[in-house]
Amino acid sequence: MNADRREQVADAAKYLRSVRPLDPEELADYVEDRPHPAVVRQALREMAFDLALVEREDGTFVPLEEVDEGLRIDFDGVEAFPERHADRLEALLVERYGPEWYDGDSGDRLRATIRRIKAEYYCGQPVEYDAETALAYAVYHLADNYAVAQYVLADLLADGLLDRPVRLLDVGAGVGGPALGILDLLPADCPVEYHAVEPSAAADVFEALVEAGRNRYLSLHRERAEAVDPDGEFDVVLFANVLSELDDPAAVAARYADALAPDGTLVGVAPADRETATGLRSVERDLEERGLAVYGPAVRLWPDERPADRGWSFDARPDIAVPGFQRHLDEATPESDPDHAPGEFVNADVQYAYSLVRRDGRRAVGVDPDPDRFARMADSDAHVTDRIDLLAVKLSRNLGSNNPLFKVGDGSQRLDHYAVLTRESALNRDLLEADYGDLLAFENALLLWNDDEAAYNLVVDDATVVDRFGS
Questions:
Q1: FRET pair for 118, CA 20 to 30 Å: which of 40, 369, 405, 445?
Q2: What angle do CA 159, 164, 167 make, to 5 degrees?
Q3: Where in the chain is the domain with CATH 1.10.10?
Q4: Which CATH class is domain 3-66?
């Protein structure tokens, strides 16, 4: 449809939108030479985000304000990678390698490529993506990336940080795991304008797996993150598992942060291992020095205090079901392969570090501790062997092999702090039951120095009270 006819469709939509739902067949009557309704529908879809329209299941369009206020989801976690997405990935594998893609020479090459990707990753080397590398990465990482994106975005939604419509920029979009997860999570009546930046061959897989549709508007930019000049204001700028691959991640993240809407959120996600997770915290702290505010999960509770610990903090969620395509590849490994252990090519773990940074100064925990009541972790050296009260955010799941052990922080810590539960009681059970990122109040906890770990241990025993603060 040419520009004049598009303008006629837009004018008719603006005229009728306050009268009744917009029917493409009716709008065709307002356009020169009366184009087919399907052509009008496509034009409306392309303009719907700018016109603040929502496409309904019956094919008509209504103003965004007619959709119920507030963006709400019913999210209970991720149990499995959806079959419809798995089928599309397998179709790509079959198209390239044949029906038994996981066997023979093609299976051997994919397994060797996954091993290479993991080796390069653990050595801190950048992964170069050709077509085969992109498919191997998808086999191993598509499902867990899908789940992580849903968990992180669900936190934003639970905190009321997103509303219709959603404009999102995915920097280093890879093969599309985060995009699939986010687009599936958001309600069908929520318009989403999704911009993906991916320069490598992974973009071909992304394009094959992630589709536009009703209330979904996709733009794929095949350029390096450093070369893109982000245009407009975004509700979310996402860096998922890509910051560690950039030469100057803090500078790139800061430039993209300029594209945030005033109430937007820059979301950084990294694998849970020490190098990438602490690297993410380094970028977070650099952005803070540039004037942005950390929303969570590592909230700064004390005014003018900043953490200087290692920052190794990550969340862990229940494993997802093993996707069939991973099981096929793993089980087809030849018995003659001396390096193979069952499950080597299965990746169902959901463990990740994440950071939420904003321009408006808002924090997930809006509490300013009373210095007359609570100790600061910055002053822990003065309190060793004392029983103290303090506020801290829970920054890990259980890390202990004997006693339950949790990383905690208040944003002022110079060194790592851990809360260790030596004697459980009804008064301290919140330490076990609190979620990652929850604020806890500790009363009468014993502070000790752990020389082996060069860290402080906050000992929680039957004389200690732990409460979710504000509950």
A1: 405
A2: 95
A3: 3-66
A4: mainly alpha
Question: Cα separation of 16 and 377, whole Å?
Answer: 61
CATH 3.40.50.150 positions along the chain are 83-358
- Cα of first residue to Cα of last residue in the chain, in angstroms, is 57
Packed helices 131-158 and 202-209: angle between N→C axes, nearest 10 degrees: 60
Is the pTM higher than 0.90? The answer reads: yes
In single-letter form, the type of residue at position 270 comes to A
Q: Distances from the Cα of 190 to the Cαs of 54, 160, 396, in angstroms?
A: 7, 14, 32
Rounded Cα distance between 391 and 413, Å, is 12
Token readout for 292 is 């942005």
Return residue ranges of the chain for CATH 2.40.50.140: 377-468
Instruction: Say if CB 240 and CB 196 are below 8 A apart.
Output: no
Which is it for strands 216-221 and 465-468: parallel, antiparallel or unpaired?
unpaired
Largest CA distance in the chain: 85
Cα distance between residue 100 and residue 329, in whole Å: 10
Burial of 286 (0-12, 13-18, 19+ CB in 10 A): middle
What span, in angstroms and rounded, lies between the C-alpha atoms of 12 and 410?
Answer: 56
Alpha helices, DSSP H only, in 37-82?
37-51
pLDDT in tens, 356-400: 999 999 999 989 999 999 999 999 999 999 999 999 999 999 999
Q: Is 199 exposed, middle or buried (0-12, 13-18, 19+ CB in 10 A)?
A: middle
Question: Does CATH place domain 377-468 in 3.20.20.140?
Answer: no
* Residue with tokens 């071909």, as numbered in its chain: 204
Residue 219, both tokens: 């733009």
Q: To which residue do tokens 């992304």 refer?
A: 206
What is the Cα–Cα distance from 113 to 117, expressed in whole angstroms?
6
Write the pLDDT tens digit of every residue in 108-166: 999 999 999 998 877 777 788 999 999 999 999 999 999 999 999 999 999 999 999 99
Fold of the domain built from segment(s) 83-358: Rossmann fold (3.40.50)
Interatomic CA distance for residues 454 and 451, integer angstroms: 5
Answer yes or no: are the C-beta atoms of 241 and 174 closer than 8 Å: yes
Q: How many CB atoms lie within 10 A of CB 213?
A: 12
443 token code pair: 């009363």
